[in-house]
Q: What sequence folds into this?
């Protein structure tokens, strides 16, 4: 059983992340073929007939989102500590 088969519930969320962040896989579009999986449509640039996958992965964007959330949480914590 592959990871994809085990984690089918997560696929819609992963597809949404790839579409919204304009990324493909964790490190890039090569992630899928490297493990024998076809590149999903959520990796394909819109408006093209044949799939032209995004080259960059979603990890850098995910990291930026986490950093942004930590900054906000830290700011709120400081404000609450002052009050």
A:
């Amino acid at each position: 059983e592959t990871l994809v088969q085990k984690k089918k519930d997560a696929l819609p969320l992963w597809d949404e992340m790839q579409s919204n962040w304009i990324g493909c896989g964790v490190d890039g579009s090569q992630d899928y073929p490297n493990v024998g999986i076809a590149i999903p449509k959520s990796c394909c640039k819109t408006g093209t007939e044949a799939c032209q996958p995004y080259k960059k992965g979603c990890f850098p964007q995910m990291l930026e989102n986490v950093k942004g959330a930590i900054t906000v949480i830290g700011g709120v914590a400081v404000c609450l500590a002052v009050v």
